[in-house]
Design goal:
mainly alpha; 8 helices
């Protein structure tokens, strides 16, 4: 029988989460600039050869696109909380490392952080190229959407592998549940981008 180690919520945990929220809000300034800049300087974030009016339900297209773009205001904070959840998971008291890496919260957060770092590294050259371009904020929307999608795929793959190997060991503690929540939110990013691309190409 595996015993669950109690993990009380402490003042230090609160400070880490507040710091994550502050970092997330600070990173939001880049996608936020897209929504505040004049329409003449924006570029389409979803490539399409047809106009929105060619879609049978233009209002649905606009709504899905708005939700997909609006999600870029949230995911900087999600990344900050993903990192915070992983830090708090390794804070003592905690289980042994072999048990931690069987928990979906910790595994999902690790997969998200590694995938996010690789995705940013891949897109860094192009981002630096448009750094001083007036449409930089629009480019950052593309970066956020693509990075979120790649991160979501990594989390879904990690969880699938964990389940197929029979190593899924969810823990009934707030720290593991928080890890599952923030890691699972990356999977939702796949749905948003696929929906945006689907409506744009119909």
């Amino acid at each position: 029988m595996v015993l669950t180690i109690k993990r009380p919520f402490t003042l230090l945990d609160t400070m880490v989460l507040i710091m994550a929220a502050a970092i997330g809000l600070a990173l939001t300034r880049y996608p936020l600039g897209y929504f505040l800049e004049p329409a003449s300087t924006t570029v389409k974030t979803v490539p399409t050869s047809r106009s929105v009016t060619s879609f049978p339900y233009p209002s649905i297209h606009r709504a899905v696109s708005a939700v997909a773009r609006g999600s870029t205001l949230v995911y900087p904070s999600v990344f900050a909380f993903t990192f915070a959840a992983l830090v708090l998971r390794f804070k003592r008291p905690r289980p042994r490392l072999r048990r931690i890496f069987r928990q979906p919260g910790a595994v999902g957060c690790c997969a998200a952080i590694l995938s996010f770092a690789v995705a940013l590294l891949i897109q860094t050259p192009d981002t630096l190229y448009v750094l001083h371009d007036p449409r930089f904020n629009s480019w950052m929307i593309n970066v956020c959407l693509a990075t979120s999608r790649m991160t979501g795929v990594a989390v879904a793959s990690a969880w699938l592998a964990l389940a197929l190997c029979g190593q899924w060991r969810s823990e009934r503690t707030w720290v593991d549940r928080m890890g599952q929540l923030v890691a699972g939110s990356w999977i939702f990013a796949i749905v948003l981008e696929v929906a945006a691309v689907w409506t744009a190409h119909l």
